[in-house]
Amino acid sequence: MNVSHRGDLQEGCTREDYVMAGKFKASNSLNVNAFNDYINYLIKKNRAGIIQSKNYLIYLLPPIESYPLPYPVKPD
Question: Domain for residue 48, yes or no?
Fold first, then answer.
């Protein structure tokens, strides 16, 4: 998947048309550092990653325990 945009974290959390929530992880051990760097960037900037397709948007919400996400998360 190509994360082509970064968006407002609040928008990702408050959209009423979301269908699914899930967790992502690095695809293999070679990508762990880059994946963690990207997650830390999203946390630091208080942003969400956005994957855009022809039919839908996927918001990648970083695991911020203090933020009111629509589901419980842990930093790991």
Answer: yes
pTM over 0.70: no
At residue 59, φ and ψ (nearest 5 deg) are: -95, 125
In a domain, 55, yes or no: yes
72 occurs within a structural domain: no
* Model confidence pLDDT, tens digit, residues 6-51: 777 777 677 776 655 667 778 888 888 988 898 898 888 888 888 8
Alpha helices in the chain (DSSP H): 9-14, 32-45
CA 16, CA 13: separation in Å to the nearest integer?
9
Residues facing residue 52 across a β-bridge: 57
Q: Which residues pair with 7 in a beta bridge?
A: 48
Helix (H, G, I), strand (E, B) or coil at 25: coil
Contacts of 25 (CB under 8 A, 6+ apart): 35
Residue 71 in domain: no
